[in-house]
Amino acid sequence: MKRNGSKTKAAHYHKIVEWSDEDDCYVGSAPPLIGQCCHGKDEAKVYAELCRIVAEWIEILETGGKALPEPLNKKKFSGKFVLRLEPALHRRLAAKAIAAGESLNTYCVKTLVKV
């Protein structure tokens, strides 16, 4: 595959650069294509390196005849997912939702949006 084709396909994958307190640096990943794969103190440099790695990874997968995972922006989401948690946490969340005058679903959505 030509390098430009890999870059074009790479543009469809979300690239995440986030600070890691544990590693004391920025860490880059591009799920579902590749997990944490680069790091550094300069956020812009980590992002540039991540973009290069994603394009190379696509080239490697396609050269090896492997299918690329569907980019998140192309994947259809239903808006529903099942969350398994400890009964005690379930109880605490339900109590907080009642105290806020909200359904458990609404309370959890509002809480997750803050993340």
Percent of residues in beta strands? 15-25%
Characterize the overall form.
elongated
Distance between the termini: 38 Å
- What percent of residues adopt helix (DSSP H or I)? 40-55%
Overall CATH class of the largest domain: Alpha Beta
Which whole number gives the mean pLDDT?
92
DSSP summary, beta strand count:
3
Ranges where pLDDT stays below 50 over 5 or more residues in a row are none
- How are helices and strands ordered from N to C? HEEEHHH
Placed side by side, the strands forming the largest sheet appear as 1-2-3
Class of secondary structure makeup: alpha+beta
CATH fold descriptor of the largest domain = Double Stranded RNA Binding Domain
What is the domain total for the residues? 2
Number of helices: 4
Q: What is Rg?
A: 19 Å
CATH-scheme architecture of the largest domain: 2-Layer Sandwich
Largest sheet: 3 strands, antiparallel
Which structural traits does this protein have?
elongated, alpha+beta, Double Stranded RNA Binding Domain, three-stranded antiparallel sheet, 3 strands, 4 helices, 115 residues
List the helices and strands and how they pair.
Layout (H helix, E strand, L loop, with lengths): L2 H8 L5 E5 L4 E6 L3 E7 L2 H21 L23 H13 L4 H10 L2
Antiparallel strand pairs: 1-2, 2-3
Helix pairs in contact: 1-2, 3-4
